[in-house]
Design goal:
Layout lengths: L13 H54 L2 E9 L4 E6 L6 E2 L1 E5 L5 E7 L7 E6 L19 E2 L5 E12 L2 E3 L2 E2 L3 E12 L2 E11 L8
Antiparallel strand pairs: 1-2, 1-4, 3-8, 4-5, 5-6, 6-7, 8-11, 9-10, 11-12
Length: 210
């Protein structure tokens, strides 16, 4: 005679099941929320790094070009013609956001800040492909060949060159002629704006103090 024992199977009650589902939902909500926050922060960080790198490249290009430049001229807007009259860069402490000069390799360079460019405020850079004998200011007519330097989400708020001139330290010591470069930009991030200001000076090798 065999005895058959039936094992009673245990199962979750309805309350236990609802509680387990609720706990899983809470954990998933926290996990997904953390992931979304991390992803948003990472995207903002990547945008910021790219913007800083873009500004570094802009300033490096301008700095290296001005360093070996000569024959600097700045734009003086003619109110009658609404065109630029380029004047020699001689007056000390004069500020301009539009200059032309000859680089050390003989190529003409025009650096131009357009603060009326559909409210985008961009910096443009133009360099001739070869050395030229015509005045560099005439190359400005080739505006279509200008290259926009800043990224779309990097809005240049202010940009200028300032001729500091030759500083007199006394006792016959005359400092080198320097050109100040100032740049202020807004970096458009998600629901935020980061403002960056850069001020530096460069001493062109071909400009001497007499």
């Amino acid at each position: 005679m065999f005895l058959i024992f039936k094992k009673k199977l245990k199962s979750f009650t309805l309350i236990e099941t609802v509680f387990a589902v609720l706990m899983i939902g809470i954990v998933m909500s926290v996990t997904i929320g953390t992931f979304i926050t991390f992803q948003s922060s990472q995207k903002k960080l990547n945008t910021l790094v790219s913007a800083y790198d873009n500004l570094r490249v802009i300033l490096d290009l301008i700095f290296r070009s001005v360093k070996v430049g000569y024959g600097f001229k700045y734009c003086m807007l003619n109110s009658a013609t609404n065109q630029c009259d380029f004047k020699p860069f001689q007056n000390d402490n004069y500020v301009s956001s539009d200059i032309v000069f000859v680089r050390g390799d003989g190529k003409c360079v025009n650096i131009y800040f357009n603060n009326n460019d559909n409210n985008n405020n961009n910096i443009y850079f133009y360099s001739t492909t070869s050395s030229t004998t015509i005045p560099c200011e005439d190359e400005r007519e080739n505006f279509l060949n200008f290259s926009k330097l800043n990224l779309d989400y990097v809005k240049i708020k202010e940009f200028y060159f300032k001729n500091i001139g030759c500083e007199d330290f006394g006792n016959g010591l005359i400092g080198p002629r320097r050109i100040e470069i100032y740049l202020k930009a807004d970096i458009n991030l998600t629901n935020a704006t980061k403002t960056v200001e850069v001020l530096t000076t460069v001493t062109p090798k071909t400009i001497s103090c007499k």
